Amino acid sequence: MADTEQSWLTNPARRKALARLAGLMAGTPIAAAMAQSDPRPLSRHHRALSLAEMQTAFDFEPVFFGNVTLPVYDYTAHGDGSEFTLRRNRQAFDWVDITPARPAVPASQVDLSSELLGVKMKFPIIVAPSASMRALHPDGEIGMFKAATAASNTLMMLSINSSMPVNQVAPASPGGTLWAQFYPLENRAATQRSMDVLQTAGCNGIIVTIDQQASYYERSQQDRNLGGRVARASGPGAGGGTAALTGSERYRITGERLWYTWQYIDDVRKMVKGPLLLKGILDPEDAKLAVEHGADAIIVSNHGGRSMDYGPSTLEVLPEIVAAVNGRIPVLFDSGVRRGGDIFKALALGANAVMLGRTARWGLGAFGTAGAQRLIEIMQQELVQTSAAAGCAKLPDINRTTVKAHFV
What tens digit of pLDDT does each residue of 231-246 get? Predict the structure, then answer.
């Protein structure tokens, strides 16, 4: 190298200029987004990583992507419309700071056990209901239930769109706790029959979804229709059928949504022998009404950004809903959770327990039952480490004093 070039490379003025450029780039929105990403994502590795190498929930996602068909991946990954709400769910966690404690608590002294509607929980973590798990892995819902039970007896909620019958899933993991999700049916007799099937199978907790329910997703629809006629899907994440969409269904409007009334909840309350939970609460007034109409708990949820675009993130509305409930019933939380730190933030803002949807699917789709168990355990241990760093030895110690929210 010539002396002139060598001088230029080591010149202090050049180093200052590069430092200033780096500072300028660090302040740009693009750099801020990149700062949240892994600079060497696992998707760029030249080999498939083993289960033992999984360190965070994010490590499972590219393995999951490689294992399933594109429509199944897109059904899991995407949200409604422009996906504003899907993105906002994740962004909201960046707007909450965790306050470090002095001194911290040794992780070995952290005990986050609690009881939720009669169910003893070692960790305030629940597997959320999500559809068609057999499309993710042959182990399906049975594998997920076994994984949840093995991971410190984690409570699991079974989707009404389960790919395996509830009377096969419920007895598959003795000692485990399985509750069931249900979408409203206007016909009360049909509702009663569904309640009887679920409760006879051993699902003592019933979760009624009262938001608009998951809509069609443009990306997955396109995948189904590549190279052929527009076809209706035969099920969530399915390859599609042969019947063309017609009428209002072309615009994702069906009679199965948005007819719900509080009278219906009153009627269902009489059919449910155990806990009744209402999923999809995003408004404090609805939270108060849920209490008045006999709900034993509510779930603050926007379907992971899948039910209505341009809605609020669940983390933003959580504090005001908790305030409206005022301790009368438990408040559960989901949507956007990817790390133990996310769980901690939701708990600090008032949630009694936090539910895992997409992340649990990543674990099952990547490595089957063992993968789902490992993922849940990773989230549990991340929560313990975060709690220790924040000086929280017990679950009640995780409160508003441990975080600072800066919602925008």
Answer: 554 444 444 444 556 6
